[in-house]
Amino acid sequence: MMMLQTLVTAKSRMSPLFDSDHPCLIVLVSLYIVFAASAHGDDKSLVRPAPKPVPVESYLKRLYEPENQRFSFTADYSGGFDQWQADARPLLQQLLGLDVIVEQAGDHQPTVEHEDSIERDGYSIQRGTIETEPDIFIPFWLLRPQGEGPFPLAILPHGHDRLGHDTYAGVFHNESHAKDSLAQDRDVAVQAVKRGYLAIAPAVRGLATEADKVPDAYKRHGERACRSHLMHCILAGRTAVGERVWDMSRLIDWAGELPEVDAREILMMGNSGGGVVTLYAAACDERITVAVPSCSFSVIASEEGRIFHCDCCAIPGILEGRQTTGYQRNAF
Looking at the DSSP assignment, which residues form a beta bridge with residue 137? Predict the structure, then answer.
C-alpha cells in the first residue's frame, strides 16, 4: 500500500453534505492505492505483474528519480505547506495548459442560456448551457432547493459516462439507466440539492456525448472521443484536464454571482474522471472550499511501469513537474 498526497485542500465552514459539528474544515486529501486484485473485485488486470527485465526497470527508475521531481513537497520546505501550495499552483496551471487558454480566451465573457425550470419534490431543475470560450457550449443541469437561500454551491463533474450530467441530475433516459444509476448512487446532484446545495451537474468535455468537441472522426484513436480530444489539446499546448478545469471555473464565475448562492461555500465532487477534474480544479481554483474526488486517482506510473488512468487524464511533463510515482510519494 502507498499513500498519494495532493495539493488539494478544502477550507470552509463545514458544509451540510457532511455530518459534523466542527466549524472549520481543512483537508489534505490522502488517497490509498492498493496493488492487488482484491482491492478492485475480480479485476485480474490489477494484479502486480511479473518483474520487468533489468534494463526496463532501471530505465523507469532513472525517469522517475526523486531529484527529477524538483517541486515535490517535503517536510522541510521553506515556508511550510502553505508556501509550497502558493509556489506550486502557478506551475500546475502551466502544466495543465491554463496559461494558453487564458491567452486565447481570457477576455471571453461566458454567457448562459437556460430553459424553463421544472418543479420536483423539494427542488426545481433547469437545463442550461454556458459558453466557456468562443463557440464552446457546455450543457448543464441546475438544481435549486426550495426557499430563498443563500445556498452553498455544488459543482459536480462526471466521469466517463456519455450521459454523465443527466445521470448526476436524475434525468434518466430509460428504465435501465434509472435502475443502474440509482443502484450505484450516481444521482449525486439530486442528493446534493436535497441536502441544501444549489447543485450544478455539467457535461464534461470529451466525456459526455453533448460535450464532444472533437470526436474521433477518422477512427484513429480507438473511436474514443476523450482520446481524440486529448490529442488536439496537446498539439495546441493545452490538456484535456486543463480545459475541463477551465469549464468548471467559468461555471463558478457565473453561479457565484447568483443572488441565491453563498459563494463562500463551494463544493466540488466527482467520480472517476470527474474526480480527476475535481482534484485539479481544487488545486488551481482557491474558491473551491471542499473537494471530494472519488475513485479518481492512482499513482501516475508505478515502479513496474503500469499506467492505469485514461489517456485523457495525462498531463505532459507532470512527473518532471513534480507529480508522483511509486518512487516519490508527495505530489500536487
Answer: 131
